Amino acid sequence: MNQNAFQCATTFLALALWIFTACRTAPSPAKQSASTARPPNIVLIFCDDLAYADIGPFGSKTPTPHLDRLAHEGRRFTDFYVPQAVCSASRAALMTGCYPNRVGIQGALSPRAKIGLNPTEITIAELLKGRGYATAIYGKWHLGDAPQFLPTRQGFDEWFGLPYSNDMWPHHPTSRTNYPPLPLYDNERVVQLMPDQTQLTTWYTEHAVKFIERNHAQPFFLYLAHNMPHVPLHVSDKFKGKSGRGLYSDVIMEIDWSVGQVLDTLKRQGLDENTLVIFTSDNGPWLLYGDHAGNAGTLREGKGTSWDGGVREPTLMRWPGKIPANTMCNEMAWTMDLLPTFANFAGTNAPIDRVIDGRDISSLMFGAPGAKSPHEAFFIYWGQELQAVRSGNWKLHLPHNYTKPNPAGGGGRPGKYSTERTDLALFDLSNDVGETKNVAAQNPDVVARLQQFAEQCRADLGDSRTKLKGNGVREPGRVAGAK
Fold it and tell me: Is residue 1 pLDDT above 90, yes or no?
């Protein structure tokens, strides 16, 4: 063999060996796709004081065609809860995946509050931002209005909205508090005082649409936190009087329109198949306001109570090709479960350096055969008082006082509260969703088991009724000099 032929043969053998080695060590196309796949976009639409039966998929007569579509194309969650039936506590749980008592937030924070969500807590936005997500909140924050507590300091790239509830303004009908003019923020700048509340739902929706359009080429987390239907009710001219069922229904129709705008934008941008959309609320209806409050249906009571009318929320989830269409999940889950679930979808984990109370519920979302709630029990507080425990279909109310409208108000003005009391009471929610028949006497073993869960919870999170301080409670953020 001459030298040229030898060199050609050597080169050919070397090339063949390289190709053989490359084929053995390169990832398969499927693995390459899995390792480089874009994580899903996440759209979380969160209402304020929305009642369980306020939307079509949960029995309302108010026309909600876009929410009906969301239910038809996705999954309806019948037993989806918040841990406290009030604004700030509920939102703290949502953002951190923790009981609000664990992170030191109870009740509804007032303007100029001296505390807020501790910046050391890790929010959904911070977790997803660390995975390359664009993040935005359009709407109500209500986790502290001091600069260090604003959403732009808690993982959100953008914010347009109100720092707290829309009734915390000088026009409040009964408040003894001297509320300041209501501020509308664009990021950290106040752009209006006393904004036209009839435009809030429209403004938030327009910002959400533009955010999706700007960020269609990268993963994004959109938190659309409507102020409505919290009182004072406001609706734009395009829906005023349209329902024929009163102002409250007009407001619900405008929220439904907003959902439709988001869904249509996702479709136009070709993002349907890779976007998870969740619709839910922070707590049930503020029944004190009568015809300006929602309808909890067969559930008992409303906002401010630990009955299911206060803490069980109408919830829809849609992700075409992942979440089975036109299905229902009856397993119990919480807003606290969203953080660890979103972490899973983003290819990361919930924080491991602290207690996180939520659990990954992707198996419930996807309708996996035999999927069950990851919670053996969960706990419902009012302020720092442990009031109820749910485990499976059982719900145990511990002895406590609660408020009830007597009578309710109307026309935008509140009524008066009376104080009611429940003694120890057990309800089988599979047969008694309205919590009307106390079956504690017939099920002493169930009562004992749920009371044991309650004792464990008190040791962890505390309980004002028994004067226990929990050993698992973390401090809220505090304004400098505040105690």
Answer: no
